[in-house]
Amino acid sequence: MTADTWAERHPASRPHLGGIESLRAYAALAIVVFHVIHLQGFDPPESLMFLKWHLGRGVPLFFAVSAFGLAYGYEGRLGAGSAQRDFYIRRLFRIAPLYYAAMAFQIAVNFPPPWTGDQLRLVVLSVLFLFNLSPPDVEGVVLASWSIGVEMLFYLALPVVFLVVRDIRSALAFVFASFIGATLYMGVLSGFPSIPAAFIQHGIIFNLPYFAFGLLAYFLWKEASAVRWRTCLALAVVSMVVLVLVPNVWPSQIANPYGNGAYQSLWGLPFGALCLALAWRDWPPLSWSATYFLGRISFSLYLAHPHVIDWLSRLGIYDRIRGLPGGVGVTFTLANLVTIGVLIPLAWALYRIVEAPGMSYGKQIVARLRRAAPDGSPA
Question: Is 40 part of a structural domain of the chain?
């Protein structure tokens, strides 16, 4: 280990990582633009057409960032049962308040009666965060919530993961094992027509490599010198360009389920490299106050954006934008600016009204449980 590693510079502290927060913003905004393209038909200009097919990878980016952030906050701290209890409480109150609010809204406004047959099963599994394990219910009740199902299962497994993944070597092994597992998972299950494609691609096994690359990035960042941030940024950019071009070069291989599974999993490499680069070097224009802010409200951005897109469509806003002169470049840009412009204040309000109080309440519960411990000491 060099003399300039993070572990030696910060032996006990956990300073805020603005670059990692910023990556959450980019992940959320990528998903917003992706859905404006696919739900409302605002294709980008031909020179930017790769955005249409790859901005959906904002969710895998978020998985990698999430794994990095969880390791940063909890690695080495989840050994005791009380510590695990506190972790689960804080994670639950980080996700559940806004998620349940979105579920109640969806059931009230856009959902068939939730008390009969398959709908009742879907609602129960969604309330329990288990819908990701059921092939017909993998999408959940809440719009775009499949990723939350994956995230919550990873939270559940995290203490066990930390028993196995302790350093760079074991993190590399975890990347390799999850890569093989995701490839086989897609290849084998794709041979069963009765299994929905969404269950395969939105399952925890298929998405595990993204978390694994995020964990590997954390252990590399913890042990290596910060001067390598330029190399990591270059690796992220080059590997993303290569992966964008791969389907054009080997289309038949990517069409094969096994090849496609391997290809999708490899996107964890540039996302892990981005985590490394921005954790080591938090600097404008990639990371600054605006992206910190958007990263903080990224969960609200994510859950609110399908409804904002739907509302703008119902109000005829997108139809008016389509009728404007200037071509695809103008309409694509304006549609996304209007969507994001409406979405940000709504997401900020949701963060202040729902998310922040929920997190605060979770911390209060943990504090009360610690004070009630038999020895009177924190877990």
Answer: yes
**Angstrom distances, CA of residue 10 to CA of 14, 19, 70, 223, 224:** 7, 17, 17, 12, 13
Residue range(s) defining the domain that contains residue 52:
6-10+24-371
Annotate 243-279 with b (16+ C-beta within 10 A) or e (fewer): beeeeeeeeeebeebebbbbbbbbbbbbbbbbbbbbb
- Rounded CA separation 36/305 (Å): 9
Residue 186: pLDDT over 60: yes
pTM exceeds 0.85: yes
CB 27 within 8 A of CB 295: no
> Is residue 377 one of the residues assigned to a domain?
no
Q: Is residue 18 part of a domain?
A: no
What are the tens digits of pLDDT across the range 292-307? 999 999 999 999 999 9
What φ, ψ does residue 5 adopt, rounded to 5°?
-80, 160
Angle at 120 between CA 115 and CA 122, to 5 degrees: 145
Kindly provide the b/e burial profile for residues 153-167, where b requires at least 16 CB atoms within 10 angstroms of the residue's own CB. Answer: bbbeebbebbeebee
- Counting the structural domains of the chain, the total is 1
The phi-psi region of residue 168 (left if phi > 0; otherwise alpha if psi is between -120 and 50; otherwise beta) is alpha
- For residues 374 and 89, give the distance between their C-alpha atoms in angstroms, rounded to a whole number: 19
The residue written with tokens 């978020």 in the block is: 62
Is residue 17 included in any domain, yes or no?
no
3-state helix, strand, coil in the chain (%, to 5): 80, 0, 20
Query: Which one-letter DSSP state was computed for residue 34?
Result: H
Q: Tell me which residue of 148, 2, 131, 138 sits closest to 62, measured CA to CA.
A: 148
**pLDDT per residue over 131-166, tens digit each?**
999 999 999 999 999 999 999 999 999 999 999 999
**Tally of residues, the chain:** 379
Answer for the pair 258, 179: CB distance below 8 angstroms, yes or no: no
Query: Is 303 in contact with 102 (CB distance < 8 Å)?
Result: yes
368 burial type by CB count under 10 A (0-12 exposed, 13-18 middle, 19+ buried)? exposed
